[in-house]
């Protein structure tokens, strides 16, 4: 797939838009677990919703950025040399408001273009068939008809937040007590094409916490995913000690720490428009 030059260059550094999955995969595979979401988003089912930029130095790829199109704030992933990331975000991908996934060394470069909100460090964890330790629990498979109940559990009250199509095409499990959904886990992205999937939307009602329900639903989702992919990843806050322990008990291993921050482009009028609505908007990348 041909690339399109952006016209931005500094010395030997060039930023351009690209749809070249082979080149992107070769670069992202340098750290497959960190780039897991981005790699999975190259799957045929997701690729049309993404925009990609790469920076090259003397013809070699040194940085990649990916924007996942959707309701603002949009997921934004960056990887590679900070100077290359800065050039891509300055000329190729100019997202107004985004949830940024980045390494700590990228934050100064991103801050030249965006106001970066404070946030806790995140941990990327992973599991495969060899390391997975399932638990037997009371989790049941959910489907599109459970969307309203999921959104009620997530305390959003808006069925538009989690579309029924996402539940129907994903893998969701829940636990019910007295007919009410009290715990659930699902998926952010699934890519049999690249052998990767991401668990997300793990939540337990505040009155039911400390009973192992999050572990049970996460185990059920993970078990089904590992029937079709090789590796499952998830994100968890570094200060969420109970969640880290629960995921470790299932065989998930920490791969790295990274930053997940809400960023707003300097001088953007869009942010003042969407700010009052932000609490209703989905966070596709967090657990």
The major β-sheet equals: 14 strands, mixed
- CATH class placement of the largest domain: Alpha Beta
Structural class: alpha+beta
Low-confidence stretches: 1-9, 275-287
Arithmetic mean of pLDDT: 89
Strand content: 35-45%
Examine the secondary-structure arrangement and name the CATH architecture of the largest domain: 3-Layer(aba) Sandwich
Number of strand segments: 14
Helix content: 10-25%
Give the distance, in angstroms, between the N- and C-terminal Cα atoms.
34 Å
Q: What would you note in describing this structure?
A:
The protein is of the alpha+beta class and 287 residues long. The chain is built from 9 helices and 14 strands. 43% of the residues are buried. The model is unreliable at 1-9 and 275-287 (pLDDT under 50).
Topology at a glance:
Layout: E1 4-10, E2 13-17, H1 21-28, H2 36-40, E3 50-57, E4 60-68, E5 74-80, H3 82-91, E6 97-102, H4 107-111, E7 114-116, E8 121-128, E9 140-142, H5 147-153, H6 164-169, E10 172-177, E11 180-191, E12 196-204, H7 213-225, E13 231-237, H8 241-249, E14 253-265, H9 270-274
Parallel strand pairs: 5-6, 12-13
Antiparallel strand pairs: 1-2, 2-3, 3-4, 4-5, 6-14, 7-14, 8-13, 8-14, 9-10, 10-11, 11-12
